[in-house]
Amino acid sequence: MQAIVDFIRELYKTQEFIPLHEPKFIGNEKKYLNECIDSTFVSSVGVFVNRFEEEFAKYIGSKYAVAVVNGTAALHISLLLADVQEEDEVLTQPLTFIATCNAISYCGAKPIFVDVDLDTLGMSPKSLESFLEKNCEIQNHQCINKATKNIIRACVPMHTFGHPCKIDAIQKICEKWHIVLVEDAAESLGSFYKDKHTGTFGKLGAFSFNGNKIITSGGGGVIVTDDEHLAKKAKHLTTTAKLPHPYEYTHDMIGYNYRMPNLNAALLVAQMEKLEQFLASKRKLTEEYANFFAQFDDIEFIREPKEAHSNYWLQAVMLQNNEEREAFLQYLNKHNVMTRPIWRLMSELEMFADCQKTDLSNAEYLQERVVNLPSSVRV
Ligand SMILES: *Cc1c(COP(=O)(O)O)cnc(C)c1O
Q1: I need a surface site. Which of 5, 109, 247, 309 has the fewest CB within 10 A?
Q2: Maximum Cα–Cα distance for the chain, whole Å?
Q3: Is the overall model pTM greater than 0.70, yes or no?
Q4: pLDDT in tens, 100-115
Q5: Which atom of ligand 1 is found nearest the CA of 96?
């Protein structure tokens, strides 16, 4: 195990603490922040917000992008735009960050947990389809859960660590069952499935720019869609639903104050300029890790799935079992090399313990074995 610590120290050329993922500010961040401060437009309107939205939409190939305060807010609004209401149910995967399930809960809806695939770490289209066939029927163009009589309104797969899940197959299933596809693409900026950017398969997609993501605005998120009506509604809902007027304050519904401040957008525009460089650095890191771990029979370095191009946001290995995972985590963390286990399954958390779920063998298998390695960009 010391060989692993030594190798990672060599990768990062330091004897100090090595974090899991730290941001890098090596471009125009300070320049744009100064411009933003000098303009006095530091808050909810300003040129950087518009510039970011345009550049982001262009990069991922969606028609519209609406910047918001964080990825959780992006998911929340996306689900509201998918018409998720109280008592509705939303399909998702148990292997995800809590934000996915929190956003579903903010709408008053309940998650249903569908197993993941071992090769993508994301939602399994097979498990999804078999759940729907066994438990649901279509009535009036809506998917009804026969057990609860509730509407299954949306499906939220997540691209784990930046590895795209089988999103085209999931898209087809959702279409057939009249379920709105909302992608949690929080971790997958720069990841493509069959040459199409993640987040653009669903009716709506949500990204995060939290401090630990591939690029950051301190805190931030964005909603993407090709639907002009939804994009307008997203902007309206996230800006307190204020009607445009030179001086009157009139609001036509209960909206949210979810707009990304211009200061954060200034930082983000500078970060976007470095995205290609960050992606290249991560890919190089992947090759070095993969070559190194090839010598261990009992440690599998996790590669991108077939037909996918991953951003390799977080590098990961799969260990033999829970004991080996524990030993690995203890040794590396004790030696100041930060490693972290994959999330505890959402279906095992108290708040979601009574939610419906499929057989979750794959998610349970991964929970016991997957560990993230230091993944910061090296520049
Ligand atoms: C980071 C993340 C989010 C959003 O997180 P915020 O901190 O609210 O920006 C949502 N889903 C997943 C899977 C994430 O990793």
Answers
A1: 247
A2: 68
A3: yes
A4: 999 999 999 999 999 9
A5: 13
